[in-house]
Design a protein that fits this description.
The structure is a homodimer.
Chain A (H helix, E strand, L loop, with lengths): L4 E5 L3 H12 L3 E5 L3 H10 L2 E2 L3 H6 L3 E4 L4 H9 L13 E4 L5 H12 L4 E4 L2 E2 L1 H7 L2 E6 L2 H14 E8 L3 H29 L4 H9 L6 H10 L10 H18 L4 H15 L10 H9 L6
Parallel strand pairs in A: 1-2, 1-4, 2-3, 4-5, 5-6, 8-9
Antiparallel strand pairs in A: 7-8
Chain lengths: 297, 297
């Protein structure tokens, strides 16, 4: 069996690297993006251009979406000019965007009626992970389809985990974003308390990193935070979007997540203060504003 | 110069191991504890018994306290029958309890007037760290005194860090406890959301531990939490006490710590529900109660 033909919808910062790895591995990729410049980039890497999601999907064995949020997935999958217009028995659809689990489940049901088998497969690892193909990929959907798609997913990621049925990949991604948000908020409140007490944040960083308080976000971003450096990384406004998904999911499932709700409001404050394009570790700025103190320097 | 004579006040779960290491290393230790049984334990290890804090301190070059909270330190250091009654020029006082930074500063000032040089040196690492002498020790006070006491502190701990002037050790310990509390709350909300969505918590644990969401508390306690095992470790009621210190310090310094405040209330709920003697990772029970869901099993 030859390599599957791929339709790739959404070739922005993440998608362009991911599609590039598929092309480099010998997959034939037809790409679509609403942004012509993004499409130029992957065309230069060897992708065939399409004029719509439907056109990208028309001749494909496997259709992949990598778009910003739930409405974009719904549009690309089920909307006018979307995958649904060319859906057929045997087609596979993998959504790698981070969206609401409920949307993943609904899209899988709708396309499933037309014989399309679906996986939700959100990623973590950011642009660096996409570029180096070291993404962590969290997959929901039928176990046999997961096994069948594993070689393809391994082209884009390093750790690929089957999390359960449709929507389970999105659920685990949501859990991941809760933990990362609260690790960052914990680092923020630690540094701010220490700064106001006159303790060198470098010392706080060193002691906490070396003990039971250690987190990977502190290992990676702590040294930048104590110098006031917030170039992304992962932008605050994307984490705010993810927290919106988390709170929507919590509402649907009747789960009470008070700390995630608070984190959502702290990230909301970041956006209100023009910090949405900074790295999400900039949540310390919300605590600094509340406390009228500067940590870095 | 021979080894310093040590007065050790407070030989409970932590202090008995710490005093034991000093005795094993050849220090002469005179110990006091309000609990006679605790005193029996260290006497059996070779400590001389004292009938009061003042008696333990009377012939000592270095007096160490390891007691539950700020009022106990104030009583042992400044109260009737306390160190202050035998304080003299050249004596060194090291408080290794976890207490309010403001209390450490005040005790150092009061004893300082009588020529006693003071360090605050709270520890992290729990009973296991005390037993294996692998504690992390966070030290506030004069740099030259820190250097002078380093060999003695190294008998009880592995990582000994000078954090700044008087109170700075307590401040860094407070920062540590903020970060650990929020890492635990993040794990709790992740697992509860996942459980309600029907995802196996073992999968959430595996994916989060292997990526950017990783925390040491998840590495150590996550495998127990997903099985519903909460034997301490570090008891919830001690972390609640530490959060009380944190919020008191935040009030004194005019710092706003909304997530630490929320964590304090979640730990308060644990105590209200009879879970104070469980490991602090049991904070997941507060989120489970709020959400009417069981994670483990």
């Amino acid at each position: 069996m030859g390599k599957q033909k791929i339709g790739f919808i959404g070739v922005g910062i993440m998608g362009s690297h991911m599609a590039g790895h598929l092309i480099d591995t010998g997959y034939a990729v037809t790409a679509f993006d609403i942004n012509a410049a993004a499409l130029d980039t992957v065309a230069a890497k060897g992708a065939t251009r399409a004029e719509s999601s439907a056109e990208a999907a028309a001749g494909a064995d496997v259709v992949i979406t990598m778009v910003p949020d739930s409405p974009h997935v719904e549009a690309a999958a089920l909307g006018a000019g979307g995958i649904i217009e060319v859906a057929r028995e045997g087609m596979v659809y993998i959504d790698m965007s981070t969206i609401a689990p409920a949307t993943s489940i609904r899209v899988a049901e709708e396309l499933g009626k037309l014989g399309v088998r679906c996986l939700d497969a959100p990623v973590s690892g950011g642009e660096a992970g996409a570029m180096k193909a070291t993404l962590s990929i969290m997959v929901g959907g039928p176990a046999d389809l997961f096994e069948e798609m594993l070689p393809l997913l391994k082209v884009m990621g390093k750790t690929v985990t089957h999390c359960g049925e449709a929507g389970a990949g999105q659920t685990v991604k949501a859990c991941n974003q809760i933990q990362v948000a609260l690790n960052l908020v914990g680092m923020a409140e630690s540094f701010v308390l220490g700064a106001k007490a006159g303790v060198d944040p470098q010392i706080i960083l060193r002691v906490l990193s070396g003990g039971y308080a250690q987190t990977r976000v502190m290992d990676v971003r702590g040294p930048k935070v104590v110098k006031g450096e917030f170039e992304p990384g992962f932008k605050s406004r994307f984490h705010y979007k993810d927290l919106g998904i988390i709170m929507e999911t919590a509402k649907n499932l009747k789960v009470s997540l008070p700390a995630s709700a608070l984190a959502t409001q702290l990230f909301s404050s970041l956006l209100a203060n023009g910090c949405g394009d900074l790295d999400h570790s900039a949540v310390i700025k919300a605590i600094e504003m509340l406390s009228n103190v500067q940590t870095a320097g």
